[in-house]
Design a protein that fits this description.
Number of helices: 0
Strand content: 35-45%
Distance between the termini: 25 Å
Shape: elongated
């Protein structure tokens, strides 16, 4: 049935590398708890997220994610994840 409260449309915006840089949806009726209708993603030339919803992500010289909005990651000399530390609650976390 067209035009009901359960209709949903998704919109995608792509960057020059054909990666999804933004997802929007017209209706959150099928969204998971705490979902937002839109998040902006920024990626670098190594296909790493540098920001998500305006929050910075950082990487070490080996390309390992070292910090996101909620956790800090520690790697050993063999690039193995050895520790994860919580940095606090995430204000915008979304499960898509």
């Amino acid at each position: 049935m067209s035009g009901t409260t359960y209709d949903i449309e998704y919109g995608f915006r792509y960057n020059p590398a054909s990666q999804i840089s933004q997802l929007t949806r017209s209706n959150n009726v099928y969204s998971y708890r705490a979902a937002r209708p839109s998040l902006d993603y920024t990626v670098n030339g190594l296909n790493q997220y540098t920001t998500v919803a305006g929050k910075a992500f950082t990487y070490d010289d080996n390309g390992n994610l070292t910090q996101d909005t909620t956790q800090q990651y520690t790697f050993n000399n063999a690039n193995q994840l050895v520790r994860i530390e919580d940095r606090g609650p995430c204000e915008w976390c979304v499960v898509l």
